[in-house]
Amino acid sequence: MTKKKGIFDVNINLDVNTLSMPNQQKNKRKKDNGITIENALQIILRQMEISGARPRTLYDYEYTIGKFQTVTKAVYLLDITNNLIYQWLESMNVANQTKLTRLKCFKAFLGRCLDNGWLETKFWRNINVKVDQKIKEGATDDDVNMLLSVLDFNNFLDLRNGTAVLLMYKTGIRIATLSKLEERHVDLENKLLNLDGQLMKNHKGLKLPIDDQLVYLLYILMEQNQKIRNEYHEFNEYVFITNKGEFVSKGITSNAIQKQLNNYSRKYGIKNISPHALRRGFATNLLRKGANINLISKALGHSDLGVTTQYLSINIEETAQELRDYL
Which regions in the chain score pLDDT beneath 50? Predict the structure, then answer.
């Protein structure tokens, strides 16, 4: 049988240096892998910043995606698989609620990648973390009064922290909003907080009433603030400052007032005195006084009623009983 020539004959130089992949083919393979996770993250962060995302949200994205890459060693967006996501979740030595929070952030990142056309499917859709739905308690009048009873309002830091606690409990504002509050936002004459969109998470302005007790405390606090700023040559109009006249938030995750509340909680055994508990307490008080959920949602600055319901400590039996009244 005559051997067919040509189709099986290979013309190759077996020099070992030629066995590596040609540059053109290398570049093609690299291109086929798509955009890197790092590049995708930087683009998305810029998009979010332009659209007005909070610094804390940007930080959460950077932290979450960075931890994922550290654990999985993934480089390209197309390297991400469900198995890698599970590997990342299993590496965390934290509570399931924290895992769920980080997973939601990671899913949000992947969703933005999908919107940008870098991914084709929501392959991560069914990944979840089971968490017992334990209702978080809000602060009560007893919690707040107990703390106020141990504070010395003749001391600047106690005055500042006590006023902050009352302001969060009686208006529901977030600790981040409170930290950026300036004197121009406080209308003592009309007993109002005039919060512009730059202060609010949802970027919508809001007016919140304050009572006579807060009017008095805020007046005293702002008078004392000016003395401290003059002493340390600080030029700002923040309502809540450090004992050296500076901004109370040194970083995205560092807040002097929040640290003090944590210290009070441990020192005096007051469980529900955190900024979030105070905000929940405000929402719960409004509900008990007969406010409807739409009003509560607006007061909290929420854009989604579903988020508001999470703040309200209503158990299943109470819900069923209240609904029965409408049958």
Answer: 14, 16, 18-19, 21, 25-31
